[in-house]
Write a structure and sequence with these properties.
This protein is mostly beta strands and 174 residues long. 5% of the residues lie in helices and 44% in strands. The chain has helices at residues 24-28, 34-37; strands at residues 3-7, 10-13, 16-21, 40-43, 47-48, 69-71, 76-78, 81-85, 97-101, 104-106, 109-111, 114-118, 123-124, 128-132, 134-137, 140-142, 150-151, 155-156, 160-163, 166-169, 172-173. The strands form five sheets. Strands 1-2-3-4-6-10-15-20 form an eight-stranded mixed beta sheet. The protein has a five-stranded parallel beta sheet with strand order 5-7-11-16-21, with no helix packed on it. Strands 8-12-17 form a three-stranded parallel beta sheet, with no helix packed on it. A hairpin with a 2-residue loop joins β2 and β3. It is globular and about 45 Å long. The chain starts with a strand and ends with a strand.
Amino acid sequence: GEFKMLESSILTINGDVYSKISDQTELASIATDTTTLSGKYYLANNITLSGAWTPIGASNFGGPAFTGKFNGLGHTISGLSISLSDLGNGNTDTGLFGGTRGALISNVGIIDPSITITGASTYTGALVGLAQDTNIDNSYVKSSDPTKKITSGSYVGGLVGGFGSGTLTGAGTS
């Protein structure tokens, strides 16, 4: 594809205008409303998260999904930490992105995630909890720390917890 910098915080990829994400605050701001959930974003650098993470978007069960585009440009996100128990309705999907629908996520790595969900039935994956009609390209999860795990009451995957439809290409876990 074609990459072109327009301004210091805007990048075009194949004609689409992407907004820059360079830190945890900017990454978390994607989840603020349906307008930001449908935006196009790129990672300007590697990001290390601190503290508990609230997933971006939800599935059909719990609210609006992420429907936009997210391109990591080969960068990584480390420090992803989610710990939830007794979720009540049992339909909360968890990962960096909780739920996606019609989204494109590409070129990003998740390093040493730690996700623990107890007392609930949920889709849990480091990158996406529940992906519906979503394309995931050249993305991965890597864990070298045996104390970092992904555990859930039911549907668990390293990269994606549940995959409704779409494509996975060049994606994996190690």
